[in-house]
Amino acid sequence: MYNPTKRQKEIIDVSIGLIAESGIQNLTIRNISEKIRISEPAIYRHYNSKLDIILSILEFFGNNSKFMLDKLDSEDISPLKKLEKLYLKRCKEFSEKPEITRVLFSEEIFQNEKILSEKVKEIMTIHRNFIKKTIVDGQNNEVIRKDVEPEHICNIVLGSLRLIVTMWRLSDYGFDLCKYAQSQWDSLKILVGKEN
Hints:
Tetracycline Repressor, domain 2; mainly alpha
């Protein structure tokens, strides 16, 4: 498990901020060192390259995600409630730290770097597997409809989450993401939940 040092965490946070300000082209070792007020060689003592820094951002997010999903999986609540908590918790995290969405939802960062695209795919797979398992549990427990494939319900849940986060980003964070997510989830629950 990736556990960054205090300085590495500072480099990660500054890097996310630089990407949020002006995109991936703004992330340079020079810009990081100027923001932190340490020399460029000092950055290289912690990371070999810009690629290593971006990989660490993804690793850090992935580890936090895995911890959150494991904790959620151990809760004694209905599968539909687990999906709701995941959906709303992700939106809450993004609303508290919007700059992370500029990294996670920026395909241009990953399209030319296989190691980064593989890391993003790994994180997505962890989420998809959790969601699909939870959907199957919900279908077996008669709280999620069985007449729709688990894979399709998973796509609906993840796709709607990505869409509202993207809309929020493109509006320059101009609406309450958590409030919108709750409203959207209420509709999703009607679509995928099974009436008793």
